[in-house]
Amino acid sequence: MMVDIDLSQPPFSLLDESGKARVSKGVDLGYFDNEEIILDAGQPGEFVFIIHKGEVAELDSTLPGDQGRIGHYSAGDLFGAISIINGKSRYRFKAEQETLCYLLPKALFEQLCEAYPAFAEFFRQTLANKTRLLIEQRNEGGMTMAGFMLASIADCMRPPLIVGEATTVAQAAAALDDSHADSVLIQAAGRFGMVTKTDLLNALVLEGLDKGSPVLGIAQFTLVSAKPGDYLFQALVSMTRHKVSRVVVLENETPVGVVELTDVLSYFSSRSYMVSLEVEQADDLDALAVASARLPELVKALMAQGVRLRFVMDLLAALNGRIVNKAFQFIVAPPYQAQCCLLVMGSEGRGEQILKTDQDNALILADGSDWPDCAADMQRLTETLIKLGYPPCPGNIMVSNPGWVKSESAWRETITHWAAKRDGASLMNLAIMLDAHAVAGDATLLEGLRAHLFECCTRDELLLSYFARAALSFSTPLTLFGTLKKPEHGIDIKKGGIFPIVHGVRTLALERRIQPTSTLARLEALAEEGRLERDFAEDLGEALSLFAELRLQQQLARLEGRQKSEEPNRVVVQSLSSLERDLLREALGIVKSFKQRLSHRFHLEY
Amino acid sequence: MLRSIRRAADRRRQADGQYGWLFNPYTGDEMVSIDCETTGLDPKTAELVSVAAVRIKEGRVLISDSLDLRLQCPESLSGDSIKIHGLRGIDLDGGETLDEALEKLLDFIGNRPLLGWCIDFDLAVINRHLRPRFGFDLPNACLDMVNVYRREVRRTRPDLEPDLRFEAMAKALGVPVMGRHTALGDAVTTALMYVRLKNGSRRAS
């Protein structure tokens, strides 16, 4: 009765009833005056502090002024555990208000750690693991659906039906019928090709092939493949992207299974596939607009089911890409489609757009192309996209603007010019171009241009340093935690969290000539190259997902009209749960150390 | 005056008894905050319903090792007091006998100084039961939180007339009221008020 700690929150939720009772019975109360130092750097940790009332700052006294602020804790938060584990405190904890804390003695804490390994593990965990905890907690109840969504391919694949290269069409058909399968794999010269029932039907009926002819002739050898450990969700994404209904599961280049679209569908009975089907089947703009308008609903459903944000992003990027691609095909006559390449840029190019934001797009025309109505067509494309729910770009970075429709060689010149000029606008344009992703037309045009961009920039240290500087332009809002005069102002999650990560990673990708455009894929590639430690890269990715998720919650709330704020990027810290706050604090800490690395690498200290 | 004479007499009588050590001067750095819930407000007739005590050490309130005793239902338990402390007859089933409770209380507080909010009332009720059974009054040094607070307000804000009601004091000191009208809750809140005041003046000096 005397102990008012929320034991249903991690880390205490990791204890059983008797463990929780030991906490309630074992804590004392401590009172600290404003400005009082609760635990100083270098002091041995004697207690875990759980704040009942008040606010505490975590300070690194070796750094001057506000830079030294590592974290901020308020009611419900916990600190001091790490100091006990490490033997002494690394930083200074100072009360910023009169503060009342529950004190969990060291001995009891150590006994609990010993008796409950999961509890002990909590304090050693990286951000990635803590986020998982948060998700698990949110999904108690909805857990089964999330379990489905996070099922791996191995859970859902069927064994492959493999036949030799001498197999005839009739034998293949018999084999398919015997095993109730839809597709058969042909092994020929160490490679594998696929023949589906539809292929057989077309070959026999449309092309009039003889029953006795070898099936090898109609096999498809470019396979859309996946690994058994991949998420089932990713299989769905690649099916959407490649417009096929099955993927082959390869392990060490050998097929170990096939995942059929129908199988995946039995897992995802929800509307996610329905929306992508609607997008595929739309044969006019109106139908496409209807499908497109259902995307926010899909996002909400997926989030409610606890699907991890990065998979939602992947799926949405694929769907948005298909929608833009369709619109392009409706408007641009086929002969011109091969002569140009439509790019989406900014967050859309990085595949990080979840709800529709401004359209950022551009067009590359092949050199020597002949397309008299290009400007009019592009004007219509922009207008169509507005109708489909993509608002116009306030900076006018759209294909309706002739400045963003250029021939390949003109683009090269422009990029060279931007790289040489290095002023604010040029750097921003370079950043936008660097995130470009081809959604329609001839993608090789973009590849050539990107190679040129890397050529212009990667060896220019000065340019890289100018480029990187933008990542530091907004301070990390750790200091603002809880101490805001008007808490409803919140902290700007985009400036404080998302932008520094995205731009910093983009800079490193530019330096290392990394092709992928999504921040998570870039991080993966940077870790692969050894440019970033894997742990750090994972934490950065996790931090980004967390920020994006918090922002998404705000945006969804705004869509539903629950929140009227004009500032979708502001997160009100006080409205978060203490675990969310803990995660946010940690994520912002990671952003801060990433910025320090950047400023060290690109000499931005002065 | 009367109290000190009584204490001297008690002390001589108890010198070789089981509780003689209670009369030794205290040398440690702990205090004990106590509170009682009773059946009435008149110290001459009120019976004990529950007694709680919690130690204060180095600015911490040791709630993990506190004493919280419920007594067997006294005859005078009436509707009026139940409305305040919320302990009905049935809640006191299985409670301690007065003898056991007082023995536990003596063991817990030892010769430490006592703290309480309007402690004279609690002392009067306890002593009324203690003397017939053990032959002495509580010999401990006593501190009344009301006096401590009044002195502090006089010193820092002589222009103010202090509001000495329990809740008002807690609010003025920024201390949350923990479990009001339970013996342990009031004892802990009083302890927190004390720690808060001592902390503040320690830093000021």
Describe this structure in words.
The complex is a heterodimer of chains A (606) and B (205). Chain A is an alpha+beta fold and 606 residues long. Chain A has four domains: 12-124, Jelly Rolls, CATH 2.60.120.10; 153-267, CBS-domain; 271-457, Beta Polymerase, domain 2, CATH 3.30.460.10; 469-601. Helices cover 49% and strands 15% of the residues of chain A. In chain B, helix 4 links the parallel strand 4 (114-116) and strand 5 (142-144). Helix content of chain B is 44%, strand content 18%. In chain B, 36% of the residues are buried. Chain B has a five-stranded mixed sheet with strand order 3-2-1-4-5, sandwiched between helices. In chain B, helix 5 packs parallel to helix 7 (183-204). Chain B contains seven helices and five strands, in the order αβββααβαβααα. The model of chain B has no long low-confidence stretch (mean pLDDT 84). Chain B is globular, with a radius of gyration of 17 Å. The chains are: A alpha+beta (606), B alpha/beta (205). Chain A binds chain B through residues 1-4, 25-33, 36, 52-53, 98, 100, 103, 105, and chain B through 59-64, 66, 174-176, 178-179, 182, 184-185, 188, 191-192, 195-196, 199-200, 203.
CATH uppermost class of chain B: Alpha Beta
Indicate how many domains the architecture of chain A comprises.
Answer: 4
Question: Based on CA inertia axes, which overall geometry of chain A fits?
Answer: globular
**CATH superfamily label of chain B:** Ribonuclease H-like superfamily/Ribonuclease H
CATH superfamily of the largest domain in chain A: Beta Polymerase, domain 2
The largest inter-chain interface, given as chain pair and residues per side, is: A-B, 20 and 23 residues
> Strand order within the widest sheet of chain B?
3-2-1-4-5
Q: Would you tell me the structural class of the helices and strands of chain A? A: alpha+beta
Q: Identify the CATH class of the largest domain in chain A.
A: Alpha Beta
Number of β-strand runs of chain A: 20
The number of helical runs of chain B is: 7
- Give average pLDDT of chain A, whole number: 81
Total discrete domains of chain B: 1
GO molecular function (chain A): [protein-PII] uridylyltransferase activity; magnesium ion transmembrane transporter activity
InterPro entries (chain A): CBS_dom, CBS_dom_sf, cNMP-bd_dom, cNMP-bd_dom_sf, DUF294_put_nucleoTrafse_sb-bd, GlnD_Uridyltrans_N, MgtE_transporter, RmlC-like_jellyroll
Keywords (chain A): CBS domain
Domain CBS (chain A): 218-277
